[in-house]
Amino acid sequence: MASTLISSKANSGKSSSNSITSNETPITEEELRKKETPITISDILKLRKATNNYLTETDRNVYKIDFVHFRIRDMKTNKVLFEVERGQVDEGDPDNDQELEVGRFVQYHFPSSFLKLKQVGALVDFTVGDREVQSFRMIERHYFRDQLIKSFDFDFGFCPPNTRNSIEHIYEMPEFTAKQVKEMVEYPNETKSDSFYFVDNQLIMHKKAAYVFDLEHSH
């Protein structure tokens, strides 16, 4: 399988200010689940809180995009904060529904000092199946207690078929007040994120995460 390195500059993540102050009519998760046409980026940007359930079925990923390696690092110190590499799926069962379902949710445990970082790099390796992927894009929205903290917009661009691709997204972290940090530590799993993946402006994958910030390991 060929490999492709996709470059990602620090300004790839776009500020969420436009999304937070948008005058567009908000849309609910329930309304999106009933939508008969494909869910688009514009639809997702109208959401005002984290989702409770997934907005796509696992079989919507007709491009066979599979995330196999993920690493988070502090851009200032280069310290690795989180890293995981998925084992290869058993060739006899490439579409294992249980494995696909488990891979859609991540529970993160970070020291509270994570909330004071300025820039974080998230490196991801992913494979693509037999179909080329045009205009692969991710919208990632972070919430605390259903209040939008930040929205990121990353463009993967074109991905050739039968390749393993690598890209590092640079996150410009929001600045939190001491009160916000205290609350996010005191209320574990109330900080959540939705990652929505689109090809040609049609939602094909949806991943979720919850965050715990541990004060005891903040040094």
Automatic annotation (TrEMBL):
Domain of life: Eukaryota
Keywords per UniProt: Lipid-binding, Protein transport, Transport
One term under GO cellular component: cilium
Compositionally biased spans, kind Low complexity: 1-26
Coiled coil spans: none
GMP phosphodiesterase delta subunit domain span: 60-213
Similarity remark: Belongs to the PDE6D/unc-119 family.
Name listed for the protein in its UniProt record: GMP phosphodiesterase delta subunit domain-containing protein
UniProt organism field: Adineta steineri
